Amino acid sequence: MVKYLFNYPVIDWYEKELQLMGQSLGEYVASMKLDGIEQLIYDNNMILKYKELTIGVHLEYWSYWIDFWWNNQQRLDYIFESNEEKKHYYKAQNIYEWIEYIKKNITFGSEFKTSIFSMACVRSKCSRNIYL
Length: 132
Known about the structure:
Elements: E1 5-8, H1 12-21, H2 25-31, E2 36-41, E3 54-59, H3 65-69, H4 73-79, H5 83-90, H6 95-109, E4 116-118
């Protein structure tokens, strides 16, 4: 069975756009003839909202994760101006802390009781094939 969704993160400017349109998220979903939303979980401290409309969860993702995983310092130094910026982006200093953060992100996303999870994004200059 196909479900028609759109990605929706619960962030202030998305919420303000709904207010400006004079619609609730449920009304907007219905007006677009969609089944619900794929909620973007970009932070483990988000407020859980719209459970009744959430059919899928998109976990946090990192465009440059391969470089971090392989500890490609040359690429990481090119992408980030400082170690602090890199730590802020990945929410970790190393892959072990990062794996723990990802586990927490999965646990947080599972609060929505959905069977659809997605997490994928790759941008890397490397000679290896990447399969997700």
